Write a sequence for this structure.
């Protein structure tokens, strides 16, 4: 008996361990809708019930699929703001169909410029800026991106700007950002303004290389000669040459290194990033990190007001093999969905089984768009907290590169009435969509739909059918190679009939509206023509 008790106890402990692991933390989650948007992209909508009820939208993107990729949708000019669906539809075209998208990077709501590092194929679109406070979202250099081998990545990055003068190399503080106290910064022609933002105390050395600088890139080295110097007490801002750069500094430490530079001296600057991110298709800094190695790992002060706020959230996550990318939004500040704190959001992402996840711009910016069946237009999938989409800086795109084949593979028709069918009653079918094998929409012509029956209980006329004899029936609707089946029963008499609307007395010459509830043999709704009831 003792052995049996021990065995039972051990089994109970195993069950307890299984059902307490993070993968079961989403046990209160129910799926409202789920279907593929393309061969490698699946959309799902959930209701998650934890301490509060939330509506979650989820795009799972399989990069192992040859027709699937993740893109970063940037506007031109870079500070243009548009809604997520506008971004997506502007960039969607044959061979590059945006089938799903979420809002992405943080941005300055005043001037529209992205706030943190963005690069595409080594071109630095916006420079790296890191907050000094862990109460802010981006206080560590972490990014999401697609590496040169096409895998998703969420990892720390190490970018450096090294200036070489007179045989000595020093790492300076930034690129194309406002210079702080005791800092040295490089300004290239890709700065927002053609003038440096710094006046007053400090020195600036204008360097020209002889060649137009069309982009600032990781792995790039610019070498030129000093052609002008803005003195320490000069209040004027320096003009950034199109064929060079400006070295700007203040403070005695930098002055000891550079105040002796003269016109004609040679200066070089190199822009570097660690090998993980070199040649990446794109990378975008954000934060905080939420999940690392399958465990909650929030790189932010979780007691800060931003982290503790119950709000709409947006995140991107990857699988351990880096082949699956998850785009996830949680609605908030609405009746049907409360939102989550960052800690709750991290716990939720862990429950999905992701390996790494990073927070993106949330709150009123949280938006997801998807391509619904029958159209290439990306439409709103979630409910923004402000009631309408906010204009945002950029998006992360789930893209299908599959061609449109013009061969139907998937169809959907709907009935104007659903239930068992009374002999003599008629049902009409309405085509909803025609898709090819890659879920691309195809032209929809009613004449292309054909109906065949299995048991001859109905007569068919185009896209309608009328019951002629009792029995079970299965209709097959086809459009070339695409097939949909519809099953139902035909009966020659109702099994049940109740009339509602009879109440009290009726005055002479008055009318009385009656409602019939007619059911079939299994208590299912029965379809009949109005003329069949007297």
């Amino acid at each position: 008996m003792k052995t049996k008790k021990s065995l039972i106890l051990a089994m109970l402990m195993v069950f307890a361990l299984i059902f307490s692991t993070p993968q079961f933390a989403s046990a209160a989650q129910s799926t409202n809708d789920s279907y593929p948007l393309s061969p490698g992209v699946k959309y799902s909508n959930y209701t998650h019930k934890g301490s509060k009820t939330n509506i979650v939208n989820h795009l799972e993107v399989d990069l192992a699929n040859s027709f699937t990729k993740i893109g970063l949708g940037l506007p031109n000019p870079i500070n243009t703001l548009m809604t997520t669906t506008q971004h997506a539809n502007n960039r969607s075209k044959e061979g590059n169909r945006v089938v799903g998208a979420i809002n992405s990077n943080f941005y300055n709501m005043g001037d529209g410029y992205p706030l943190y590092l963005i690069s595409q194929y080594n071109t630095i679109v916006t420079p790296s800026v890191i907050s000094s406070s862990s109460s802010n979202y981006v206080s560590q250099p972490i990014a999401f991106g697609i590496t040169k081998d096409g895998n998703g990545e969420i990892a720390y990055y190490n970018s450096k700007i090294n200036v070489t003068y007179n045989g000595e190399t020093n790492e300076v503080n930034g690129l194309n950002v406002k210079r702080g106290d005791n800092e040295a910064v490089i300004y290239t022609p890709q700065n927002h303004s053609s003038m440096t933002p710094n006046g007053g105390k400090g020195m600036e050395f204008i360097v020209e290389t002889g060649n137009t600088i069309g982009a600032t890139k990781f792995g790039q080295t610019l070498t030129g000669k000093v052609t002008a110097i803005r003195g320490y007490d000069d209040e004027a801002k320096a003009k950034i040459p199109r064929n060079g750069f400006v070295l700007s500094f203040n403070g005695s430490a930098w002055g000891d290194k550079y105040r002796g530079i003269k016109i004609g001296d040679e200066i070089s600057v190199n822009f570097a990033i660690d090998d993980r991110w070199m040649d990446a298709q794109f990378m975008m800094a954000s934060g905080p990190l939420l999940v690392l190695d399958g465990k909650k790992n929030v790189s932010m002060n979780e007691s800060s007001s931003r982290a503790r706020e119950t709000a709409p959230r947006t995140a991107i996550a990857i699988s351990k093999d880096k082949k699956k990318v998850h785009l996830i939004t949680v609605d908030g500040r609405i009746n049907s969905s409360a939102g989550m704190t960052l800690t709750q959001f991290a716990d939720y992402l862990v429950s999905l089984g992701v390996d790494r996840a990073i927070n993106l711009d949330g709150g009123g910016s949280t938006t997801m768009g998807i391509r619904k069946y029958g159209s290439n237009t990306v439409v709103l999938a979630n409910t923004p907290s402000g009631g309408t989409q906010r204009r945002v800086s950029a998006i992360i795109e789930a893209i299908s590169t599959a061609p449109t084949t013009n061969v139907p593979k998937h169809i959907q028709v709907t009935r104007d009435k659903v239930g068992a069918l009374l002999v003599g009653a008629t049902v009409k079918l309405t085509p909803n969509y025609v898709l090819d094998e890659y879920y691309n929409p195809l032209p929809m012509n009613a004449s292309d739909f054909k109906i065949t029956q299995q048991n001859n209980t109905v007569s068919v006329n185009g896209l309608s059918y009328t019951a002629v004899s009792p029995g079970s029936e299965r209709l097959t609707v086809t459009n070339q190679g695409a097939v949909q089946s519809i099953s139902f029963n035909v009966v020659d008499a109702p099994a049940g009939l109740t009339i509602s609307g009879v109440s009290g007395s009726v005055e002479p010459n008055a009318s009385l509206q009656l409602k019939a509830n007619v059911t079939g043999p299994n208590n299912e709704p029965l379809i009949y023509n109005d003329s069949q009831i007297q």
Q: What stands out?
A: The chain is about 10% helix and 40% strand. The CA atoms of residues 147 and 280 lie 4 Å apart. The helical segments are 2-20, 84-91, 252-258, 305-308, 342-351. The first strand starts at residue 29 and ends at 38.
